[in-house]
Amino acid sequence: MRKSVRKHGRTMTSIKVTESFTMCEMFERFMWFKQSEGLAPRTIEEYRIHFQWLLDYLEEDLSREQMTLDVFLGWADFMLNDKGLQPTTVNIRVRTMRAFLRWCYLENLIDTPIHERFKPIKTAEDTIEALSVSEIKTLLNAFDESTFVGFRDKVMVMVLLDSMVRISELLSMKRSNVDFKAGVIKLEAMNTKTRKAREVPLSSKTMKLLKEYFIESEDFGEDLLFLTYDGREMVSNTWRTRLHEVANLTGIIFGYIRVSSKDQNIDRQLNEMLKLGINERDIFIDKESGKNFNRPQ
């Protein structure tokens, strides 16, 4: 047996092997990955909607070689200049696709880091004022407490103002999670965006209203806290519409946006408010974690 190494022996070279998928196939793998991360169904659905808008523009699937920076820059230009979309709307879609492209690059599905140069459009940041105390009082007084729906909506707004939770979290609250003795409501992990359970304290006035609401709604026999007039689960968009209808009666049209940190982007939520015709001056933006209750006034 030879113990020495051949002077002119063959050397082994490592060859990077990349599977070749179409863009649609890459996106399906990306969606599987995002679902495995535990993203909320609504977020997953928004990813699919944004990707479909890209496909509508392209009118065909792309090979990995066809996925170039120019393609995505052209799409952004089309949305902004040909379709006349607001920069905030364009940026929502751009951010979704950037996340997709970044994942594709890190997974070696594409060779070029397109995401590094495919960036959101720069937009001016306006100072947005919150509703005044008198405006909040006017809104609360507008609810017809002689009806179940009117009283329910007032209680919901009081809980929302006290807890600063998202509307989706508000509608997921359960009767069994209300602790009247401690004055808190527990939010279950599965119903929060961060997938972390937490307790939110409420004022004594709100807890008093909640006790009255418990009595009004106990005949439904459901554990969900806030229900429709006939005892069914509420839909967030329906309640938002209802809230704006009441606000219109007072001459106040307002919106509420919350993200958990100052670094998170509010474009998607802000764009939805603007589409409803809400003035930016009447959009309340809260950039604090839901676990903190000592907020700037």
From TrEMBL:
Gene3D superfamilies linked: 1.10.150.130, Intergrase catalytic core, Resolvase, N-terminal catalytic domain
CDD domains membership: DNA_BRE_C
Record key words, sorted: DNA integration, DNA recombination, DNA-binding
Active site (UniProt): 260
Domain Core-binding (CB): residue ranges: 21-105
Domain Tyr recombinase: 126-297
Superkingdom: Bacteria
Alphabetized Pfam families for the sequence: Phage_integrase (PF00589), Resolvase (PF00239)
Domain spans labelled Resolvase/invertase-type recombinase catalytic: 252-297
Cross-referenced InterPro entries: CB, DNA_brk_join_enz, Integrase-like_cat_sf, Integrase_catalytic, Integrase_recombinase_N, Recombinase_CS, Resolv_N, Resolvase-like_N_sf
PANTHER family in UniProt: INTEGRASE_RECOMBINASE PROTEIN MJ0367-RELATED, PHAGE INTEGRASE-RELATED
Family that this chain belongs to: Belongs to the 'phage' integrase family.
Protein name listed in UniProt: Integrase/recombinase XerD
Species annotation: Neobacillus ginsengisoli
